[in-house]
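User:
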Amino acid sequence: MVGKAEGKPIDTRSDLVGGRSTRLTNDGALDAYPVWSLRTNQIVFSSRRRGNPSLYLLPANGSPGSEKLLLGGAPAFPQAWSSDERFLVYLVLDDKTGRDLWAMDMTSNERMTRAVVNTPSDERNGQLSPDGHWLAYETNASGRFEIVVVSFSNPTEKSTVSTSGGTQPRWRADGKELYFVAPDGKLMAAPITTTRHADGSRIEVGAPVPLFQTRMADGGAALQYAVARDGRFLISQPAESATTPITLILNWKPPASEITR
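Assistant: Predicted structure:
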């Protein structure tokens, strides 16, 4: 698991079984929002090392050195890798269009980039489907954040997923369900059906159903849960208090009935 240390955010690697943490970055700047590449064992993260937050790539095994991925100065934050790890989806803060979703081809020497969704509304938390054909994300185009899915190669093909608000989309490992968080904190699941046609793929989204109530920590736009390949969920939630609070009441005068019992 990749996470942030207490205090100033830095990138750390945590062993969920042994409980050990390994610090991966040592720069004095703020490092945050790590996204792990499991095939190539690399991590992309956002850092303010040269002004605005930008994307950096470093080995996940703790080897020194990191590569700056973007030359532009607009703030950028990583979102997700494609399953084949050819593409990296990332968020860009644009002065005119707000939060936009872009993709970078990690297999090209030039690190070619393209805008995937950049409307006047905010788009964030982009997540690619396991087959790489579809991008799920949240947008506030309707006045509140909802989950939509677009074709990754042709973003004009759009399907609505949530009906009453939603954030933090995540795909099931086989791509047949899309999870998201409802405004009341319930984890929702929408069935997904894809079909192949001569002119491309089609997607059908079923009605979302609630799975269970969560108590996720308030992370703003940051994703607060992950889905394992076996269907289990790893969810961030507030820590339980280790001690029972003691209440002290001063100058309490019990009723006479309580005294005579």
